[in-house]
């Protein structure tokens, strides 16, 4: 039995990181549950990569603390039960896939060669092919096998689907989900593409401008909001300010995302549960600073 049972996979308290140019992350407090798939979402410059670098011990916090599987990252280095797949998927381009896997075996104390090989084989990637000749999707599958070969309890993936076509994206996610179902490991993955995460992640961490804007179980978050659609005339005054996350209007129709349940009887209005994309986009737009003031909400809608 693991010594970390019952402990959050990742826990941050008042976490902050300041670079020379200013704060990239500030006052972040959250917990990611174990055995679940958590999505880290946010616009460009939100602080996602910085947060991942703090979790993997590549950076040290300027303020607050982060705990990985119950442990504080010590001085430097990645937690032994955490695997990290960086955005540029570092692989030796001149190696063959077979040589890459053997390097994984030589470089890692904990390494399940049969498992890593099996992952590459099931992806249909030829063992004798050079890394430089693989397609983006094949390279991702090899990089994933290299990370999973360490049999991590927590895997952190920085935009694993960027640069992949929709078919390859689906294949990579299916392969990852199959491993999650089989091993019960915890996944934290960042993505700009919210549509990729719908139905896959069960926990959300939404960052904007270096701060946590929304965090929690996806089902609870969706059930805790309502998207109200009704006539734009008089829409502004229909809902108390404190429950409105975002309100948008065209000439005829208003769309208002509110916290909590739909207000009782509202003739002409319909209420429905938002999708993850609608929820995240509304929170990101509402957190967007005025032009010229830092991070912009450019999360792709599809
Ligand atoms: N090494 C660094 N030195 C100075 N500033 C940095 C450094 N790395 C990141 N930043 C700044 O910190 C902020 C957060 O950057 P970060 O890369 O963590 O965001 P991100 O959410 O991963 O963005 P993206 O989606 O564009 O990759 C940005 O304003 C960025 O310019």
């Amino acid at each position: 039995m693991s010594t970390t049972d019952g402990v959050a996979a990742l826990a941050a308290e008042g976490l902050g990181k300041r670079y020379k140019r200013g704060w990239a992350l500030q006052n972040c407090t959250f917990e990611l549950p174990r055995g679940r798939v958590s999505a880290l979402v946010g616009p460009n410059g939100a602080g996602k990569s910085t947060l991942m670098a703090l979790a993997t011990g590549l950076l040290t916090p300027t303020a607050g603390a982060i705990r990985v599987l119950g442990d504080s990252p010590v001085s430097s280095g990645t937690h032994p039960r955490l695997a990290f797949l960086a955005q540029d998927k570092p692989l030796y381009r001149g190696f063959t896939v077979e040589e890459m896997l053997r390097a994984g075996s030589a470089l890692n104390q904990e390494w399940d060669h049969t498992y890593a090989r099996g992952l590459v084989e099931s992806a249909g990637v030829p063992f004798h092919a050079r890394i430089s000749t693989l397609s983006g999707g094949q390279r991702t599958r090899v990089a994933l096998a290299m990370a999973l070969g360490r049999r991590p309890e927590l895997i952190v993936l920085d935009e694993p689907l960027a640069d992949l076509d929709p078919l390859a994206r689906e294949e990579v996610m299916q392969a990852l989900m199959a491993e999650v179902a089989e091993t019960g490991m915890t996944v934290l993955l960042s993505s700009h593409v919210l549509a990729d995460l719908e139905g896959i992640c069960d926990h959300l961490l939404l960052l904007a401008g270096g701060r946590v804007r929304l965090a929690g179980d996806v089902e609870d978050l969706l059930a805790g909001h309502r998207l109200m659609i009704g006539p734009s005339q008089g829409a502004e005054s229909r809902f108390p300010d404190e429950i409105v996350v975002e309100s948008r209007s065209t000439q005829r129709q208003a769309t208002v995302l509110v916290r909590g349940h739909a207000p009782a009887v509202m003739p002409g209005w319909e209420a429905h549960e938002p999708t993850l994309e609608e929820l995240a986009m509304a929170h990101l737009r509402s957190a967007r600073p005025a032009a010229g003031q830092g991070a912009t909400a450019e999360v792709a809608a599809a």
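Residues 19-21, 24, 42, 44-50 surround adenosine-5'-triphosphate (CB under 6 Å). The mean pLDDT is 86.
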